[in-house]
Design brief:
The protein contains nine helices and two strands. With about 190 residues, the chain is mainly alpha-helical. The longest helix is centred in the N-terminal third of the chain and has 25 residues. About 30% of the residues are buried.
Length: about 190
């Protein structure tokens, strides 16, 4: 796949820029799904999902007219991005994803090990519990990432951003498509 000539890309071409946000978001999402199934109780998958959702939210916000500066000022804070996104996308059906975004945002602390260590020390924690997979009654992990919730959120953001998942998946290799479809109740939206 050829990368577009970003120097020739007009910054006022909002549709093209939106796809420039969503395309790597899909790559992060597929990589996150792979990491989710390849590792046990690792923050790696959630960090990749965080990066994907950040790209999708920023692409949606570009579509509603937020400037580059406004999007960059929100940095990597999914909760802030989500709050701004919801101002422009008041669909009540999106309410179900707020908790998923909140849980995913918490994983950002793992992006840099030093930050995670400082954060845990500040909270008086020697370690933390990370859980991937569906919730287990009686188990209250410090950090939780449920792939079914992520899959649902990703499709909802594609819809909200007027981006066709099938178009975004067309350049994936067979291995990427296989990961995308594995245990994914939303797989039909992609293929």
């Amino acid at each position: 796949m050829l990368m577009p000539n970003l120097h020739a890309l007009r910054t006022d071409d909002r549709d093209r820029l939106r796809f420039e946000y969503f395309e790597p978001g899909v790559a992060y999402y597929v990589a996150g799904r792979f990491a989710y199934y390849a590792t046990f109780a690792s923050p790696s998958a959630a960090i990749l999902f965080h990066m994907a959702v950040e790209r999708f939210l920023k692409g949606c916000l570009l579509g509603v007219g937020l400037t580059e500066k406004q999007r960059k000022d929100m940095e990597h804070k999914l909760n802030d991005l989500w709050e701004e996104f919801r101002k422009h996308a008041p669909d009540p059906a999106l309410d179900m994803h707020a908790e998923t975004v909140r849980k995913l945002d918490a994983f950002y602390v793992f992006r840099y090990p030093e930050d995670a260590a400082r954060n845990f020390k500040k909270k008086g924690l020697a370690s933390c519990t990370i859980m991937t997979g569906p919730p287990v009654p009686g188990n209250n992990p410090d950090f939780h990432c449920d792939i079914d919730e992520i899959d649902s959120l990703v499709i909802a953001l594609h819809r909200a951003g007027s981006v066709n998942p099938k178009a975004m998946a067309k350049d994936l290799k067979p291995e990427g498509l296989a990961i995308l479809q594995r245990h994914n109740t939303h797989a039909a939206a992609w293929v």
